[in-house]
UniProtKB/TrEMBL annotation, chain B:
Source species: Aquirufa nivalisilvae
Gene name linked to the record: purS
UniProt-listed Enzyme Commission number(s): 6.3.5.3
Subunit-structure text: Part of the FGAM synthase complex composed of 1 PurL, 1 PurQ and 2 PurS subunits.
Pfam families, per database record: PurS
GO MF annotations in UniProt: ATP binding; phosphoribosylformylglycinamidine synthase activity
Substrates-to-products reaction catalysed: N(2)-formyl-N(1)-(5-phospho-beta-D-ribosyl)glycinamide + L-glutamine + ATP + H2O = 2-formamido-N(1)-(5-O-phospho-beta-D-ribosyl)acetamidine + L-glutamate + ADP + phosphate + H(+)
Keyword Ligase: yes
Protein name per Swiss-Prot or TrEMBL: Phosphoribosylformylglycinamidine synthase subunit PurS
Keyword Lipoprotein in annotation: no
C-alpha cells in the first residue's frame, strides 16, 4: 500500500508518520499542500501539527489548501483517508467527518499520555485491536473536545462510527479519564462509509521501541494487516 | 463602491465556552461580581469592493458561511457600512 502524508505549513508530525509507515514495510511519500496530485497513493494521512498556525479555527484554512480538492475527491470515491490530531480537525472542517473539535474544557493545551480503548472492531484501524485493552497513547492539543449535536451523536452510535474512547488504565470509560471534555469520551470516529478516520491521540508518537511505548504501533499496524 | 463589514462570530449559546468561563472567574477575582456570564467570540473586519450593498451583503454572508464561521459551533452577524 502506498501512503501519502500531506504537509501543510505548520504540520509537525509528518516525519513521525512517514517513519512509522516505513517501519511497517510500506511506502510513504510526503504531499506538499500546494500540489494537487496525490501521486497514486492508496491511503492519505493528514498529520498532526498546527496548520496555518491554527489561525481562525484549527484546520479551517488548511481545509482549503490546493491539494484538498483531490483529497476530498479521493475520500468521496471511497479511498482511505485518516486525520490525526490537527488532521482530524481539518477533516471536520472539511465536513468529511461529522461534528467539531472545540477548545478543551480546561482551557489548557494538554500534552500527556492518556489511555485509549477501541470501541469496535468494525473499522480498518480497529479491526483486530483488543476491545478490553487500554492503549497508552499521547495527546497534544488545545482543541480536542469532540462535540456534535444529538442527532449526529445518535447516528454515530447507530452506525458504529465511534472508534476510540478515552479511558483509564484499566479500560474504564469515565469522566475522570476524559482529558478534554469530549462528549461520551469520544477520541476517534469514522464516517458512515468507514473509509475516513479521525482521531485526536497520536499513535505515531508511540511507535518506536526506543521510546519505550509501542502501543501506537499496534494501532497503526491495523492499517496494513 | 467600497464597504466595511464588521462581523461578529460567537460560539453558539448551547456550547460551553471555557474561555468566557475563565474570564468570568477572573472578573470575580477582581471583585467584579455583577457579571453573570461572559462569552468570547471574534470580531472580523472586511473591506469589500462591490457594486451594491446587496452584493456586498452576499459576499460577506458567503465568506462567513464558507470560512469565517463554523456553523456547527458558531453563529455570526455583521453590519455593513459604505466607506
Amino acid at each position: 500500500m502506498k501512503f501519502g502524508v500531506v504537509v501543510f505549513p505548520g504540520s509537525n508530525c509528518d516525519d513521525d508518520t512517514v517513519g512509522v509507515i516505513e517501519s511497517l514495510g510500506h511506502q510513504a511519500v510526503k504531499l506538499w499542500h500546494k500540489e494537487t496530485s496525490l501521486q497514486n497513493c492508496d491511503f492519505i494521512i493528514l498529520p498532526g501539527g498546527f496548520s496555518y498556525g491554527d489561525y481562525l479555527r484549527s484546520g479551517a484554512i488548511a481545509r482549503f489548501s490546493p491539494i484538498m480538492d483531490n483529497v476530498i475527491k479521493h475520500a468521496n470515491d471511497g479511498g482511505y483517508l485518516m486525520g490525526i490530531c490537527n488532521g482530524f480537525q481539518v477533516l471536520v472542517e472539511a465536513h468529511l467527518l461529522p461534528g467539531v473539535l472545540l477548545r478543551n474544557n480546561s482551557q489548557k493545551f494538554i500534552s500527556k499520555n492518556i489511555y485509549l480503548k477501541a470501541a469496535t472492531n468494525q473499522s480498518l484501524i480497529t479491526q483486530s485491536l483488543d476491545l478490553n485493552n487500554a492503549y497508552k497513547i499521547p495527546i497534544a492539543h488545545a482543541e480536542g473536545r469532540y462535540f456534535a449535536d444529538e442527532k449526529t451523536l445518535e447516528d454515530l452510535k447507530a452506525n458504529d462510527q465511534i472508534l476510540f474512547y478515552y479511558c483509564d488504565e484499566n479500560g474504564q470509560v469515565n469522566d475522570a479519564a476524559n482529558p478534554n471534555g469530549s462528549l461520551f469520551n469520544i477520541a476517534g470516529i469514522c464516517n458512515a462509509g468507514r473509509n475516513v478516520i479521525g482521531m485526536m491521540p497520536h499513535p505515531e508518537r508511540a511507535a518506536d521501541p526506543d521510546l519505550a511505548n509501542i502501543d501506537g504501533l499496534e494501532i497503526l499496524k491495523q492499517l496494513v494487516l | 463602491m467600497k464597504f466595511l463589514a464588521e462581523i461578529n462570530v460567537m460560539p453558539q449559546k448551547e456550547i460551553l465556552d471555557p474561555q468566557g468561563k475563565a474570564v468570568r472567574i477572573g472578573l470575580q477575582n477582581l471583585d467584579i461580581h455583577q457579571v453573570a456570564d461572559v462569552r468570547i467570540g471574534k470580531h472580523i473586519q472586511l473591506q469589500i469592493e462591490a457594486s451594491s450593498e446587496a452584493e456586498a451583503n452576499d459576499i460577506v454572508t458567503n465568506a462567513c458561511k464558507k470560512l469565517l464561521a463554523n456553523l456547527i459551533m458558531e453563529e455570526f452577524d455583521f453590519v455593513l457600512k459604505a466607506i
